[in-house]
Each structure stands twice: as C-alpha cells, then as structure tokens.
Design brief:
Distance between the termini: 16 Å
Pfam families: RNase_PH (PF01138)
Subcellular location: Nucleus
CATH topology: Ribosomal Protein S5, domain 2
CATH class: Alpha Beta
Structural class: alpha+beta
Number of helices: 4
Number of strands: 11
Domain Exoribonuclease phosphorolytic: 22-142
InterPro entries: ExoRNase_PH_dom1, ExoRNase_PH_dom2_sf, PNPase/RNase_PH_dom_sf, Ribosomal_Su5_D2-typ_SF, RNase_PH
Family: Belongs to the RNase PH family.
Helix content: 25-40%
C-alpha cells in the first residue's frame, strides 16, 4: 500500500518542493517474512525499516512475569554494531509499545519486536515505530489502540519542518519525535475514520529549543500523525478480504 504525500510547494526550499508540513511518500507492506508471527516494512522515501514480531510466546524463566507479558525490542542499525543511540531507541520504542499492548492479557509470555533499519534518510525513529505497530497488527497481537509517529526539526531560522530527511536533520538546531494513539471511529464512515488522541503517547527531543518551539512541534507532529493514521486505516482496509 502506498500514498504520496509529497508535492510541489511554491516558495518551498525543501527537497522535491515539499512544504514545511508535508510528509514524504509512505509505503507500507505487511506479511513480508515467513518465519515471524507478524511482519511489516515501512518506507518513507529514503528511510525504510523492516519489523518482525514473535509472540506472544512462553517467556524465558529469567524474564517471566506472572502478571503481565514482557515486551522486548531489538533495534538493529543499517550497518555495524549497536551503539548508545540504538539502545536508547529500543527503550523509547518499548515504552510506546507497552502503552498500547494490554500486557495483562498474556501473563508469563514474551512479545519480541525486532527492527532492522534498511535505509536511513531521516525520521528513522518514527519510521521504526510505525513499522512496529504495522507488524503487531499483522501478528494479530491485541492492542488497546493503534498509534502513529511523526518527526520534525527546528531549523536555524526558527522554522519547523515535518518528516525531515537526513540533510535537514544535520542542519537543524533541534529534533522532535512524537507518537500519538489513534482509533477508528466507525460512526463517521463505514471503514472508520482515524481519530488521533490529543495526548501524546511518547516524545523524544534533543537540541536547543524553547518551550514554545516544543508546543509548536507537538502540534505539527500531531497533524503528521493524523495523516499517518489515515494512511494506516486505508492500508488496513485494502488488505482485508471483501
């Protein structure tokens, strides 16, 4: 399933003429791995992440929890070994996933999510989060809600850019990644309109910025997540049998 969010923007200096609030082309594929319980590949033009889900399955004794399932996340870089950045992203992604999976439904089990970065041209954390959720859906793991993630950067001129590429990230003074839960409202349409919560499920930010920049980044990423959620709804409805 593919959607093109990029388009020519008059007066825009971004690649391909994108406006500050435009996403890149999104492509989503599910059931791409045979041996995983669920899998998905999520692409945002130059960034691509492959996700595999294993479980719920019996947890190892040393990790077993008698009251809830244990979520394990493995984040693999495009090349080389894991570093501090990859381990930090594992914690961020695990925190988000623990917020949408009803862990009490599957005590003494483990749900493992393995994420392999295939290409990294910016916004790779949000790309990985969206891939993880798509793979969980493909695996049939129960969820309290789905969620969507989007990134933005603050330029040296004080402008916010949604879904930045790697060049925009390198030139930015600050970077933000927000994740919002969403659900499908079946009362608004037969397929269900994607409704994004106003409360963020996860936030990662670094760099030099003011409180006002953070609030503006939250609003911009919420707009991006609304579009990602709408795409996820369309992608899911297209994959279901008529």
């Amino acid at each position: 399933m593919e959607v093109d969010r990029a388009g020519p923007g008059p007066g825009s200096s971004r690649a391909k003429g994108r406006l500050p609030s435009q996403l890149r082309t999104i492509v989503s594929e599910r059931c791409v791995l045979d041996r995983a319980d669920g899998s998905a590949k999520w692409t945002q033009e130059g960034s691509c992440v492959l996700a595999a889900v294993y479980g719920p399955r019996q947890a190892k004794v040393q990790r077993e929890d008698g009251e809830r399932a244990v979520v394990e996340v493995v984040y693999k870089p495009r090349a080389g070994l894991q570093g501090h950045t990859e381990r930090s992203r594992e914690l961020d992604i695990r925190g988000v996933l623990e917020g949408i999976i009803p862990l009490g439904m599957h005590p003494r089990t483990s749900i493992m999510v393995v994420l392999q970065v295939i290409q990294d041209d910016g916004s790779v954390l949000s790309c990985a989060l969206n891939a993880a959720v798509a793979a969980l859906v493909d695996a049939g793991v129960p969820l309290n809600s789905m969620c969507a993630s989007a990134s933005c950067v603050l330029t040296q001129e004080g402008q916010l850019l949604l879904d930045p590429d790697s060049c925009e990230e390198k030139a930015a003074t600050a970077q933000f990644c927000f994740t919002f839960p969403h659900h499908f409202d079946l009362t608004k349409s037969a397929e269900g309109e994607a409704v994004v919560s106003q409360a963020a499920l996860g936030c990662r930010s670094h760099g030099n910025f003011k409180t006002g920049h953070l609030l503006e980044a939250l609003q911009l990423c919420a707009l991006g997540c609304q579009r990602v959620a709408a795409f996820a709804r369309l992608s899911l409805s297209k994959s279901l049998p008529a």
